[in-house]
Amino acid sequence: MEQSPVSLERMRTFVRVAERGNLAAVARETGAGQSTITRHLRELEDALGVSLLTRTTRRTALTDEGTRYYAHCVQILSLVEQASQEMRDTRQATAGTVRISCTGALGVLHVSPLIYAFQDQNPGIRVEFGLTDERIDLVRDGVDIAIRLGPLSDCAMKLRSLGESERLLVASPEWLQRTGPVRRPEDLRDREGVRMSRVHGSDRLVLRSVMGRNHVVPFHGRLIVDHGLAAREAFLAGRGFGPAHRWLVEDCLRDGRLVPLLPDYTLPSAPLSMLIAPERTTLARIRLCVEFLAEQVGGIPGISR
C-alpha cells in the first residue's frame, strides 16, 4: 500500500490535537468532521512509521516520538506562516485574526474600548476577545496575547510589563455612615469586608503608612466573590469595604458613590503584564496589536509605568 504523504495540512491537524488533547475539540475548532481528523493523524503516522499519539476515551497524549515531532512541526509551521506573511502586501500583512485574553473586569471596563479603537485603525483585523480571571495556557487555548494581573510564572511565553496597578481601600458613604468613621487601620478589625476568592492572602490587609511602617489587619466578611465587577457592585450596595484596583472604581470615586478609606496608607500594587505566544510574535498583526495595547494601557486610571 502506498504511504500517505506528509503534508502541511496533516501537520497542522497533528499540532492542534497535540495542543488541545482532544480530537472532538479540534474537529469543532476547524469545522472538519472527527473522522477527518482521525484520518489525517492515521495517514501522518503511516507516512512516518511511528505512533505520535496515545488515545483513550477521554484524552489524547503525545508519545516520546510525538513530542519530538511536535517541536519540529511547530518550527516548520511557524516558518511557513512567517514566509507567507512576509510575501503579502501591506494590506494583507495587517489582516487576519488576533486572539486576546484579558482578566474580566479590566477587559469589560477598559480594554474593550482600546480594542474598538485598534480595529478602527486596522479594519482588516478580526479580534477574538476572551474574558477570564483563570490562568490560561496560550498555546493550548490558541491565544495570541494575554493581559494579566499579578505575578506570573509563564516563563515560556514572551513577557512584556505594562506597569503597576494601584490598589486602594474603598467603601460606600452609606456604609461609612452606618459603621462609623475609619481613622486608623485598627478601626477596620471588626468591620465587614467584601473578599475576593482565589486571591492569595485575601484574609489580611497590609497597609503601609507614609512613614514606611506596615500595618497588618485581619480581613474577613460573609461575602466572597470571584469577579472584580461583583466586588464593585457589593461596595456600591454597602455590603462592606475592601481593596480595589483604582481602574475598577475610579468613576465611582469621582462621582462620590464610593469613597477612599485611610488615604494616607497604601496597599501593595499588582503587576500588569502582557504575555505573547512566542511563535506568534513574527506576525505583523500581532506586533501591531501588542504595540497599540502597550501604548494605550498606560492611560487606564491607576496604571503606572
Automatic annotation (TrEMBL):
Please give the Pfam families that the UniProt record associates with this protein.
HTH_1, LysR_substrate
Q: Name one GO molecular function term.
A: DNA-binding transcription factor activity
Swiss-Prot/TrEMBL keywords: DNA-binding, Transcription, Transcription regulation
Q: Which PANTHER family match?
A: HTH-TYPE TRANSCRIPTIONAL ACTIVATOR TTDR-RELATED (PTHR30537:SF5), HTH-TYPE TRANSCRIPTIONAL REGULATOR (PTHR30537)
According to its UniProt record, which protein family does this protein belong to?
Belongs to the LysR transcriptional regulatory family.
Q: What is this protein called?
A: LysR family transcriptional regulator
